[in-house]
Structure formats: structure tokens, C-alpha cells
């Protein structure tokens, strides 16, 4: 059964990736907005933002939050591509074939992981050109990559839900807008202690702040403490809930 599932998922993932290869402009487009934010904040607003004496250059401080925005921007296309598959009738054709039902969703999830990896790499390359530097070792970089991969996986399963339930293409992608807005009410662009009370309370207890702080500490070779576990806990919790809801909706759709 496992071999059957993996084989079916691999075939459908190749199909989905072929669409990505034919439209690389989509990946570039999803990376352009976060890169534009990075350019704006570093070269226009960065001089007016005090991030503390130990934070280094502003692009070093900013990059973790920009990577979160890059992922949130990219996963919106997962919902859109799934919506198009739903409306094209291909799901009904897959039901008539002897394949594992959930592999259709997993193919979209894996495609999202690959597409977002490319977008994140593009963003990091631009940050390097802008002066980003990190003395982090291989283990720290792997921890950053793992955290971002888990975050991408969690958000992708959230994207599956509107992809299955939306009534229009706009509805399939609109869910991503609040996700892209969350980093602005976090420690991504400025320390939370500069914010007024209620805003600070929200910023310090939402998942983006925990993830950004953990990645920033890893890049800066600073003690991460419990921050990394809080960040991973948020990602794992979101993933479990989103996966359960998406699978339940999918089963109702194909029943």
C-alpha cells in the first residue's frame, strides 16, 4: 500500500512540477513582492528603524521576516492550482483510476515545497547582494532550512483548504493576504518593545514572531533557547490541524 501511494504521488508530482517548469515566471513573481519589501525597508525605511546595538545591519535583521512573507506569497498559488484542478474535472477522472486518493493532494503539497524553495533561494541571493552576511555554520543553516520547510508545509496544507472549497480563483488565493500581513505585526521589521501595549501583546504571542526570532538567532549565532521549540511547536500544531481539516474536506468532496 505504501509503495502504491508513493508511486502514485511521484507520478502526480511530476505532472504538477511540469506546470511549474512551464511557468517559472509564476515563481519569480511570487518572489518579487517580498524582494521589493526588502529593498523598500532596507534602503528607504531602514535608517529610521532602531533594532538595537547587537542586531547588526538591518538586512540581517529583516531577512527572516522577508523569508516568511516569501513563503506566504508562494503558497497562494497552491490553492489556485488546486482550484483549477477541481474545476477542470480532473479529480473525477482520478477517482475512476486505481490510485491512492490523497496522493492528489500530496502532489500539490510537494510541488509547493519545490516552488517555495526556489523563491526562498532567490530572496536569499538578493539579500546577499544587499549585504546580508551570516557566520552560521552548517548545522545552523540546516536548522533554518528545516524550520522554513516545516513552516512551508504547514501553510501549504492551509492553502489546500480554500483550494478545495473556494467558489472562484480569487477566493482560492485571498486566504494568503492575512498570512502575508502577520509579519508586519511581529518582530520581523522592528523589535516588539517599540509597539503599544495591545499590539505588542499580540505580536509577542503569534507564531511569526517565534519563527522569525528563532531564525534570526540562528543566523546571528546567538543562543536560541526555547524559541526554536516554540517556533517548531507552532508549525507542527498548524500542520496537524490544517492537514486534518483538508483531508476531511477532500473525503467529502470525493465521496
Automatic annotation (TrEMBL):
PROSITE patterns: ABC_TM2. It is a multi-pass membrane protein. It is found in: Cell membrane; Membrane. The keyword Transmembrane applies. The keyword Transmembrane applies. It comes from the Bacteria. Keywords: Antibiotic resistance, Cell membrane, Membrane, Transmembrane, Transmembrane helix, Transport. Belongs to the ABC-2 integral membrane protein family. This is Transport permease protein. It comes from Virgisporangium aliadipatigenens.
